[in-house]
Design brief:
Blueprint (H helix, E strand, L loop, with lengths): L3 E2 L4 E2 L3 H9 L5 E5 L5 E5 H14 L1 H4 L16 E2 L2 E4 L21 H12 L16 H11 L4 H6 L2 E3 L5 E4 L1 H12 L11 E4 L1 H9 L10 H24 L25 H9 L3 E5 L2 H5 L32 E5 L2 H11 L6 E8 L14 E9 L3 E5 L8 E4 H7 L2 E6 L2 H17 L3 H8 L8
């Protein structure tokens, strides 16, 4: 089985590989490349044992710590009162030059506007641009949720500003994953909290990295990035503690795309579920389409209107919570999905995965790599998309070209009523089950600070 990892997404090849991934069965033979790049067929089990033996004898080479983009290990902060603390030591400092999409942050005519927007926590998600990290899957998901009728209310329910200047970010899907681990008797090996206290020092340091290690244009979006970065690190630690692999479609088990950068790489359905608790219907392109897929060229069809300023204002049994309802793989499925959700963009979060024809200004997306975008409008003639490189711009792609480009399509219902119900069944329940005695024991146990 080969998983094609394309920056923002990893795509399954076909029904057989999907079944193997879900059921855990393995192929007898696999195709790898030798040191000269020549494809060779090898026995899967023998190859697996060889890799395990190499890992055991070279742990420092193949088991890197969770790290930030400059190679410094990511510091997973202590858990206090059931919440993970994100302090300044956990903020990624990018060593990449430049800033974000279109280099707005570096331009004198945009700098003042950029500073004002990042500094202002105004209780809503405004326009933003992707930084130098490969988190388009998260940013496109945030933007797609924001554009629904109840999107602002749903996202802002996750963010609370405290009287002491700190922020508490709740990721309801992460809380549900934690609850599941506890129900399975794995509380001692679960590092997932689902709630994150971000200190003032962390916020200020993250602002300085806006446009580089994080997005820029909206502080609330940066807060969600910080929480997701910590959550992905928690998932990585949980998987290691339980001796399990990262598994697609499973909340709290689908780990970071890269252990050296926990925010980099992911799936839109995973981000949507973690942010809202809502499951998606997903179209995944088949193997033949991936070989000949039409490449996406940003701006090829022009943009809608002027460039606006950044505004202020049914899968089988699994080991955990499945984040999707159905996975489709036929072109007719893609067409039916587009027809089904046409005119209902205000009720559903819709994102698409493309393969890009050129390097992106975010610094991480490379030509031929995967990239996630928001679908803001569907018609019989065109599909309107928004690129997280700059969410103030919209592109209208002829529908035939859109269908030829789409490697996946992720659709999830968005209503404040359903999200509130999910909160009451998971987040409030978790708070009611909080054990103050255990909290005090951990508080005065110095070893707990390094858990």
């Amino acid at each position: 089985m080969v998983l094609e990892s394309l920056g923002s997404s990893a795509y399954l090849g076909n029904d057989a590989s999907q079944k193997r991934l879900i059921t855990g069965t393995q192929p007898r033979y696999i195709v790898i490349k030798d040191k000269n790049g020549k494809p060779i067929i090898v026995d899967y089990e023998k190859y697996r044992k060889m890799i395990i033996d190499y890992i055991n004898h070279n742990p420092e080479r193949v088991r890197p710590n969770i790290s930030s983009e400059n190679g410094t290990p990511y510091l997973l902060g202590p858990e206090r009162g059931g919440k993970r603390v994100i302090d300044s030591d956990s903020i990624t400092v990018s060593t990449l030059s430049g800033s974000s999409a279109d280099q707005f942050a570096a331009r004198p005519d945009k700098k003042h506007q950029y500073d004002e927007n990042v500094a202002l926590d105004n209780g809503q998600i405004d326009n933003f641009c992707q930084g130098k990290r490969g988190d388009c899957y998260l940013l496109a998901s945030i933007d797609s949720i924001k554009r629904t009728n109840d999107g602002q209310e749903i996202l802002m329910k996750n963010i609370q500003k405290n009287n002491d200047g700190t922020f508490t970010v709740t990721l309801p899907g992460a809380v549900a994953a934690r609850n599941h681990y506890i129900q399975q008797g794995n509380e001692d090996k679960c590092f997932i909290t689902g709630q994150y206290t971000i200190t003032q020092a962390a916020v200020e340091k993250a602002k300085q990295q806006a446009g580089r290690a994080y997005s820029y244009g909206d502080i609330e979006v940066i807060l969600l990035e910080l929480a997701m970065e910590a959550f992905k690190a928690e998932v990585s630690q949980t998987n290691k503690a339980l001796g399990q692999k990262s598994e697609k479609y499973i909340a709290g088990q689908f780990g970071p795309g890269c252990d050296s950068d926990t925010l980099k790489g992911g799936q839109m359905y995973d981000a949507v579920y973690i942010l809202t608790g809502q499951k998606s219907d997903v179209y995944e392109a088949g193997r033949e389409k991936k070989k000949n897929v039409k490449l996406y060229k940003p701006g090829e069809y022009g943009y809608v209107g002027e460039d606006s300023k950044l505004s202020k204002g049914c899968l089988g049994a699994s080991k955990g919570i499945v984040e999707v309802n159905h996975v489709y793989d036929k072109e007719s499925d893609l067409q039916r999905m587009l027809d089904r959700y046409k005119g209902k963009e205000g009720e559903f979060s819709i994102t698409v995965g493309f393969r890009v024809a050129q390097n992106g200004p975010d610094g991480s997306t490379k030509a031929g790599g995967g990239h996630a975008l928001t679908v803001s409008k569907i018609t019989d003639d065109y599909v309107e998309v928004v690129n997280p490189w700059n969410t103030s711009k919209k592109e209208r792609i002829p529908r035939g070209d859109f269908e030829a480009m789409a490697l996946n399509l992720t659709v999830a219902p968005m209503s404040a009523k359903n999200v509130d119900k999910f909160y009451s069944e998971n987040v409030q329940k978790e708070q009611q089950n909080f054990n103050p005695l255990a909290f005090l024991q951990n508080l005065f146990n110095p070893l707990s600070l390094f858990a």
